Structure prediction request, 530 residues.
Amino acid sequence: RLEVKAEYRPPMSCSSGRAPTSTSGKGRSLSLPHAVQAIAGGFAQWNARNQETKALWQQMDRTCTATTVSDALIQVRAIVSLGHLIWAYAYMRVLYDKNMELYYATLLAAPGELLPVVYTPTVGEACQKFGKLPLYPRGCYVNLTQRGNVLAVLQDYAKAHLQKGPDGMYLCDCIVFSDGGRILGLGDLGAWGMGIPIGKLDLYTVCAGVDPRRTMPVLLDIGCTDASGNTAKLEVRDHPLYTGLKQDREMVKSASGTRVNKCLHGEGSFAEEFMSACQQLFGKGCLLQFEDFNSNDAFPLLEAMREKYLCYNDDIQGTAAVTVAGILGGLRLRHPSVTDLVPLLRSERFLFHGAGSANVGAATLLVKAAGVDPSQIFMTNSRGLIWRNHFGEGGSYRNDEQKAFAIKGEPMTPHKDLVDVVRYVKPTVLIGAVGVSPNCFTKEVVTQLFSPSWLSKVGIPNAGDAVFAVPADQRPILFALSNPKTQAEITATNAYAWTKGNVIFGSGTSFDPVTVDGKVHAPGQVSEGN
Prediction:
């Protein structure tokens, strides 16, 4: 059971100057990024040894002169007005380094403006460029060469950044940790993925009052694939400024036939050592949150650890909860007079495009918590609609989690292209969380959600043979959950314009309001903590 501590609220008037020792990282050695450990002088020397990084470090230091919330808001808004949020992200990071209290007071003064700066959609680009930006002390790095000594690494970070309670134990309520293996929809960014644990904990402080002085962002550095492992094909691992282990991940085939990171699984695994060390150092009440692990690792890790530790997988459980809540919100728009919406879920037909952690988690929650019949749920992977043969073995599924939502028997009609799948399934709810296929919800796909008579009614040319008649008083629900914005399955503009505003749309990252025929549509954000 997670014990909720007193709500954190920083003072609105904060003193100037560098952060105190508790946030400066002074004296750390073991918990630094692997490449930073190799040089004397820590973060300061790392930032100074490259001309470009040094110049950025100095520029941002001179830019960030705020000593009050009003000053900070003026400065960050001036940067945002230029239209590129990565600079605003860099400003906020140096503000944290100079004065943590002022940083959070500023976020709390304008969360609607600044959370998109410090987290999605900006954090994706920040992770892609994390080593090119100046490095700051926030964040504990535990690399694979430290196996057998993880407790000492955590102690190294705790000594520099955390306080002790009356019992002598370090005070830590929540740890968000990732291996950088699947950062948002951007792929493997390795140690540069630290921006995600940092950003997620910022959200918890601003939105839930979690005391940042009792939190810990962690990156488990277990290697990184080459440029082929990330969606933008960026040079990360082999970049001169990469801060992590410059080695590939050791991948093996699991018992279920999937490719997993060898060091994370089995008796005495690196993941087990880390979680055990956390519990030993911070107690059983410290929440350990998995973040942005590959699905093949995420599901078995959660299953293996959930009964041993107070742990939670945000991508599986958090996204599932918020997605189902979003669907219920959509049903509320359809049926405003109904007070019990859960039974309505059981009459919907769900198509999940993508079979990763987010969609499998949401589908599982619909079945287990809402009583939706699995026959009402359909799912795709890279092979198209997921199916299995009537004997239970063989089909297009890739793991046991996908198999649970495979239809029995391969369809006799085309079922690999998304348009054909929508035509076959006839969904009332279409949810995308593919990550690697931006704009895959084409106009033809979206209009398949409507009947020809409906399309005619709202003045949309019929794009293909839309065969499922959605009742006129029930708009289809369409969620594009992939983030950052560049990876979204559809933009808010296209979703509303192609349907004349007759779709209930939600997204995993924020989109601006869209005006169609004089009516303003504000897209809902369906993403945990975002």
